[in-house]
AraC family transcriptional regulator
Amino acid sequence: MEELCRLLNAGRFISRGKGRHATRVIDSYELILVIAGTLRMFEEESEFALQPGDRLLLRPGLRHGGTAAYEPGLSFYWCHYRPRGEVSRERLDALAGMGKSARPERFSDCFGMLLAEQRDRESGSAGSQRRLDLLGELLLSEAAESCAARPGNEPDPLAERARRYIKLHYEESISTASLAGELRCHPDYLGRLYRKNFGISVTDEINRVRVAAACRALRETGKSVKEIAFEAGFNDLAYFRRRFFRECGLSPARYRAERDGEHVNTE
């Protein structure tokens, strides 16, 4: 039987625009997948600028931390592994470093399943360590499919302009076509360029930024889910609920009620 890595814990970080990743040395491997924004980090002498769809596997015993403050709207998944033997250690070492996910939506969905299983285990229901380990292996499989990326790689200027526009206007009625009109380019070209640079579609980026805004409102206000959905730019409440569950692995109401115990962390 293949030697599985032990999945220690996992979560999702959502930034409020304060602080930076702590500088530290840990005794486990840490896998990070960026969902929105740019995460700037270092490991020893290497520096990384992780964009949406990028993943990074940090190694134990090496100093790592942030090189810049967290930007508002930054969101990333994280999990920690510990090898059970030399075979699993070698597999983790082979994945160390940065890469661009070949299937970022699938990668994100796998993290969502892992967090749901972790919540079940913590609540005393059917979750088990073996299922956590198997889901952790699924994440490592997705990480292995990623394309190599150079540390500090900067996105295409047009793609970066599109991303900034989305961050500033996500609550408006925007689409790939309207965004392309603002940037004076063809929608198909913009869609291909955005996916090439950030690993996700323009539509997925818009929805992820909107969900991140909804998460902030759920944490920080007493507004209803319907109010929050419309203020974040969603015109269809049912669609908002589906997108929210896809991004966060739970419903908006459960996110609000149980966020303190679900490893959704901020600065």
In short: The chain is about 45% helix and 20% strand. Residues 157-265 form a domain with the Arc Repressor Mutant, subunit A fold (CATH 1.10.10.60). Residues 148-152 have pLDDT under 50 and may be disordered.
